[in-house]
Design brief:
It is built from 45 helices and six strands. By secondary structure, it is mainly alpha-helical. Strand 4, helix 5 and strand 5 form a beta-alpha-beta unit.
Length: 945
């Protein structure tokens, strides 16, 4: 046995993650060679892929089996037959001095004799690294030996670096045609192997995102990955999510240096093609040839060289050139040359009729769009931007057009276009551009159009009061007489004023005063529908009757053809939800969700999800309300505003009904501040919900203070709707608990007028609870019984469960045990179906104490369905199609699909074929009457409303 190698004994080769299959394959080939069948393998791959480490590991394993191993590396520029001289040393004496075919044959015979002599001592392995640099004569000689030694125990391993051509490349291709020769292509590391390398280098397993970044930056190349991790370790980067940003910076620096080194080794035409690819981002032969001035076979050869060097991705790869490599290639050019190359590329692409966004991708890098056609292409590209990613490019395009110095109306148009493009990404930029456009506009029509967009963009922001003032100023300049030129502009401006003002505490009063005598429009235009939606909101704020607000909201939502949604649909949806028109509200919210997702309008999407969550909570579907609100919170965080008030309020509301007061309280604390205090809805919902959280955590005095504050604030804002933030009900029950019965009675009495005026079953039911809490004797039970009946006629299952519980407690305290058990059992059913487990547990405990029985699983999953979901599911079970269900129940197809999705989830079934027979039973909410002496027990606490 003999080992001969010209390599140092670096032990790093011992660690071969991801190469065990390749090593096993080579060992199997070696076993076949030892059995007396000569074999050859060409191991191929780019620099750093692990060829050298694999050959070192193979050499040691073969040596341990008793094989003679000769391991060498080809030297570039060496003399003829130098590689075989190294492999078969000593050998010089046997080589003839002559040249030509006879001499080559003589050398080959001498090589064969030398190999035969070595094989006489046992199996022989010849390993040659960097074989592409080997002289052709040596490889031809090895081929001759393989053919003559076909039945001898000979193994030849040749490693080829694919990105670097050399004199041996053609001979290697010819060698692969030999029957006993195969190719082994080394590919990138898989995730498991990459994780093993990262763990060994950084001393701990990597986080999933960190691992993904390592794989992305290194491309699975072990050499590049090792260099990346060496730099990361030197920079003190840990393999967790906190280290991602720093890892990317280190990785891009490494890629830049690597790309520069590889590109510098290429010929001039190859570098020219690399620059053209970096500019264009694709390898279209016609455009690439025109830009680089390298064409035909020279272009094909240059691209192959760039692919071998890893600068350009293999053909068919979705990313032609990595961004870090692209920047490195272009950084080699002086700035004036880059500008010239970009301008030439833009002209070529424009002349070729390529899409405007592709041409604009070049124009945005120019100092200014100097040629007349360029601004138009930039504007066209901005108009085609379909999502958040391309919106950033569109913003750059429009800023370039502005930088070119357009004047007059064109400048205003570009500012408006930039504002619209910026809206999903940078609302502050949107408002600033619209304000500048408004300041520059002089014609009434232009000012009206711009100020409307400014107002609608400012909805819910700190700029809303300023936008209301601007809208009012423009509105005052428009003619009031119908038929007068410019009068038609009043409706969209007035609508925008109200839309902007209705949710701003500082602007609401003045806007309401302006709108007091405005005529109610028909709803024929978008502006009129916006005005109707705002008027419906004002009607809801005024406290009704609910039917009037609903009529205005429905007219605002009446649209014959699809149109963009926004504040109009959102505002009307909220009014419908307040009026307990749940199906219509959910349908409108779902339309907002779908449309805003398609149009990439994150804030409309988030607001619609919040509306859905609160409406679901109002119907008692607490679990879905929590899930929907969490989605809104996550979307807000991804949109760059993790502390948004609406999602936090929706989530806190639902969490309190799940019994998670701690998380709810923390959420509310996170949004407390000027932002929440500005909004009409947000501020009062915050005070009401924060009071609920305080009460659930045992701070009755703090809760009462917040609810009373909420009432004073609503009164100051002129809002008398009893269900917008029904602070008066928990405040009444808390005052009773504190023994302040006179104050509680006065508060309950004051609430009755607003309750009757709004007139919905929910409002009436809540009002009856408040009246019952402060009543005495038989009146208390009568009022609570009426409250249960009223709430049974509403979608407010959660509030009904609380009323059932209070009535059960009263009956139990006054000896009506059988009736009490009935109401407590119904409380358990309702509360469990709603997901209000804290109340269910409390009612079950009282039920058992009263001698009642109810297993923990007595409640059917069907009881968790809302009334609308149950109606839809019952029809679906009978085999009726979604379209027919929609027509039967006067719902949209989208609403039917949404209901069925919820039904399948709640009942844990896969489809309509699995729906249970119990859906066929008619749904009749239970109503119970009770008599007897009445007095609330001292040892039970009514649930928080």
């Amino acid at each position: 046995m003999a080992v001969s190698s010209d390599r140092g004994r670096d032990a790093s080769w011992r660690h071969l993650p991801g190469r065990s299959h390749a090593l096993d394959g080579l060992l199997r080939t070696a076993a076949a060679a030892r059995a007396g069948s000569a074999r050859a393998v060409v191991v191929r791959g780019p620099a750093g892929i692990g060829r050298t480490a694999l050959l070192a590991a193979l050499a040691e394993r073969l040596t341990s089996t008793g094989m003679t191993v000769r391991h060498r590396t080809a030297r570039p520029g060496a003399r003829e037959h130098q590689a075989v001289r190294d492999l078969f040393e000593p050998f010089d004496a046997g080589l003839p001095a002559a040249t030509g075919a006879p001499a080559a044959y003589a050398v080959h015979r001498a090589l064969h004799r030398r190999a035969t002599g070595l094989l006489a001592d046992g199996p022989l392995a010849l390993i040659l690294d960097d074989a592409q640099a080997c002289d052709e004569a040596s490889l031809n000689g090895l081929g001759f030996v393989l053919r003559r030694a076909a039945s001898l125990p000979l193994l030849v391993i040749l490693a080829q670096r694919t990105e670097r051509p050399g004199p041996g490349a053609d001979a290697l291709s010819a060698l692969l045609a030999h029957d006993g020769c195969t190719a082994l292509d080394l590919g990138p590391l898989d995730p498991a192997a990459t994780a093993a390398v990262v763990t060994r280098a950084l001393g701990r397993p990597p986080a999933e995102l960190f691992l993904q970044h390592c794989a992305e930056l290194s491309g699975g190349n072990p050499g590049l990955l090792t260099r990346l991790l060496t730099d990361a370790r030197a920079a003190g980067i840990r393999p967790d999510t906190d280290g991602l940003h720093r890892l990317r910076a280190v990785g891009e620096d490494l890629l830049t240096r690597s790309a520069k080194a590889r590109l510098s080794a290429q010929a001039g035409p190859v570098r020219a093609v690399a620059r053209a690819v970096a500019v264009l981002g694709h390898t279209d032969p016609e455009l690439l040839g025109a830009l680089s001035t390298v064409t035909g076979r020279r272009l094909t050869a240059a691209l192959e060289a760039l692919r071998r060097a890893g600068i350009v991705a293999p053909a068919g790869h979705p990313t032609v050139i990595r961004e870090a490599v692209r920047r490195a290639v272009l950084a080699e050019l002086p700035a004036p040359e880059r500008e010239t190359l970009r301008a030439r590329a833009a002209r070529l692409l424009n002349d070729a009729g390529r899409p405007a966004c592709e041409v604009a991708a070049q124009l945005v890098h120019l100092k200014e769009p100097a040629e007349p056609w360029m601004p138009g292409v930039l504007r066209a590209a901005a108009a085609q931007a379909p999502d958040r990613t391309t919106a950033r490019a569109a913003m750059r395009c429009l800023r370039r057009v502005l930088a070119a110095g357009p004047t007059g109306g064109l400048r205003q148009e570009i500012r408006v276009e930039l504002a619209r493009t910026s809206a999903p990404l940078a609302p502050a930029t949107t408002l600033a551009q619209l304000r500048q456009a408004l300041a520059e506009a002089t014609r009434p029509h232009d000012r009206a159009r711009i100020v409307v967009e400014y107002g609608l963009t400012a909805v819910g922001t700190r700029r809303a009061p300023q936008a209301v003032r601007e809208l009012g100023a423009v509105l005052d300049t428009l003619p009031t007489e119908p038929g007068t030129p410019g009068h038609g502009l009043r409706t969209p401006v007035a609508a925008a004023l109200l839309v902007t003002a209705v949710n701003d505490r500082t602007a609401l009063a003045a806007a309401r005063e302006r709108a007091r005598d405005w005529p109610v429009p028909r709803g024929d235009s978008r502006g009129e529908r916006h005005l109707l939606a705002s008027l419906s909101t004002l009607a809801a704020f005024d406290g009704g009757p609910a039917d009037q607000a609903v009529d205005l909201a429905r007219r605002a939502l009446w649209i014959e053809s699809p149109a963009p949604v926004g504040p109009c649909v959102l505002g009307a949806s909220i009014v419908l939800a307040l009026a307990d028109e749940v199906d219509e509200a959910m349908e409108a919210f779902e339309r907002c969700v779908s449309d805003s997702r398609a149009r990439h309008e994150p804030w409309t999407h988030i607001a619609a999800l919040c509306g859905q969550s609160l409406t679901l909570h109002g119907t008692g579907d607490v679990a879905t309300a929590v899930t929907t609100a969490r989605t809104a919170v996550d979307l807000a965080a991804r949109a760059g505003c993790p502390g948004a008030t609406m999602p936090a309020l929706a989530l806190a509301t639902a969490l309190l009904s799940q019994g998670d007061a701690e998380e709810a309280d923390a959420l509310l604390d996170s949004i407390a501040g000027p932002a929440v205090a500005q909004g009409v809805w947000e501020w009062h919902q915050f005070l009401y919900t924060k009071g609920r959280a305080r009460r659930e955590r045992g701070d009755l005095e703090g809760a009462l203070e917040l609810w009373l504050h909420c009432g004073r604030s609503l009164e100051a804002a002129g809002i008398s709707n009893p269900v917008l933030a029904p602070w008066w009900l928990p405040a009444t029950t808390t005052l009773v608990q504190q023994g302040r019965t006179r104050a509680a009675a006065e508060l309950a009495e004051r609430s009755q007028e607003a309750v009757r005026r709004w007139g919905t079953p929910r409002a009436i039911g809540l009002g009856l609870i408040a009246a019952g809490v402060v009543a005495e004797g038989k009146a208390r039970l009568d009022l609570l019984g009426e409250a249960v009946d009223a709430l049974a006629a509403s979608p407010a299952r959660l509030e009904r469960a609380k009323a059932e519980y209070q009535l059960g407690c009263e009956l139990l305290a006054h000896g009506a045990t059988a009736d009490a058990r009935r109401h407590l059992r119904r409380t358990v059913e309702l509360a469990t179906g709603c997901g209000y487990h804290m109340l269910a547990a409390r009612a079950r405990k009282l039920l058992v104490a009263a001698g009642g029985r109810m297993s923990r699983l007595a409640v059917s999953p069907v009881d968790s369905l809302t009334e609308s979901e149950r109606r839809v599911a019952a029809l679906a079970r009978r085999g009726i199609s979604n379209k027919e269900i929609a027509a039967t129940l006067f719902l949209s197809l989208r609403t039917v699909e949404a209901h069925l999705t919820n039904v399948y989830r709640k009942l844990d079934v896969r489809g309509r074929a699995d729906l249970p027979p119990s859906l066929d039973a008619p749904y009749r909410p239970r109503r119970h009457a009770a008599d007897g002496p009445r007095r609330s027990p001292a040892d039970t606490r009514a649930p928080s409303h």
